[in-house]
Amino acid sequence: MTGENGRRSIFITGAGSGIGRAVARHFAARGWFVGLADVSEAGMAETAALLPAGQSHSQRLDVRDRAGWDVALAAFAEAAGARIDVMFNNAGIGVGGTLDELSRDEIDALIDVNVRGVVYGAQAAYPYLKASAPGSALINTSSAAGLYGTGGLALYSASKFAVRGLSEALDLEWHADGIRVCSLMPDFVDTPLLDGPNNRAVNASRRESVVQAGFRFTPVETVAEAVWRAVHGRKRVHHPVGKIARQLACAARWTPGLLRRRLLRLMASAGVGRK
């Protein structure tokens, strides 16, 4: 189904950079009207400049603000022809390191953005997705870290398990409404999320940690294509993206004991958990 202007529409959080920007470009290139939401107005402006003229609408949004969600979605729906076809719940932050290293502020911030923000987005978008169904979709960004608990990323991993569980539950709750619900589970993607240090207790950036562990990055364009397939492809809830994510999904399902031993060896080689 399409809106009054003949175009389908997608609302994207975290659209000021990284995966959100790549998804905005991917969908806009295929004629979709794109809603850009982020706490960074400068980032949104940079993304909008990369899109065809007249194919986007920008709205500053802190995903932790439930009332702000209602304002942002109403404004976008008006700009998009009174409908929203896809909600891409993508905004998130990363905090690494062992749990004992994290401050209370770091814990609260990650849970607020990665869990509360996703729940708020799903709840706020539901009336719009129901109105545009069948064919509407909620896509939540989880992570390969939501496939098996990852030492050194305990809190981040837990937040992505929450997103995974929410997606599974809403897939059931919203099935009768004709709304597709999926979780995106990418592995290591080189985005600004990796710019900062793991946490306040360490100096090395998250990007350096990935490189030192010997992992390769999945191109952000590959993730954007995965979102497109999640909206249009075969119905399944979870979408691992990247070679490592696919291997982890297989191992978590079929050989969890072997996976645990491998993760313990990886942690030992990286010195995770040693004091």
Provide a descriptive summary of the structure in words.
This protein has a single domain, classed as NAD(P)-binding Rossmann-like Domain (Rossmann fold). Helix content is 47%, strand content 14%. The chain contains 9 helices and 7 strands. The chain has a 7-stranded parallel sheet with strand order 3-2-1-4-5-6-7, with helices on both faces. Helix 4 links the parallel strand 4 and strand 5. The longest helix is centred in the middle third of the chain and has 29 residues. The termini are far apart.
Low-confidence stretches: none
CATH topology: Rossmann fold
Let me know the CATH homologous superfamily: NAD(P)-binding Rossmann-like Domain
User: What number of domains?
Assistant: 1
Major β-sheet annotation: 7 strands, parallel
The CATH architecture can be named as 3-Layer(aba) Sandwich
Strand order of the largest sheet: 3-2-1-4-5-6-7
What integer value in Å does the Rg equal?
A: 18 Å
Structural class: alpha/beta
Our measurement of the CA-to-CA distance between the termini, rounded to an integer number of angstroms, reads 57 Å
Number of strands: 7
The CATH first-level class comes to Alpha Beta
If helices are DSSP runs of H or I spanning 4 or more residues, what is the number of helices?
A: 9
Element-by-element helix/strand order: EHEHEHEHEHEHHEHH
Q: Percentage of helical residues? A: 40-55%
- Write down the overall geometry: globular
| Mean pLDDT figure | 88
Tell me what portion of residues adopts beta-strand conformation. 5-15%
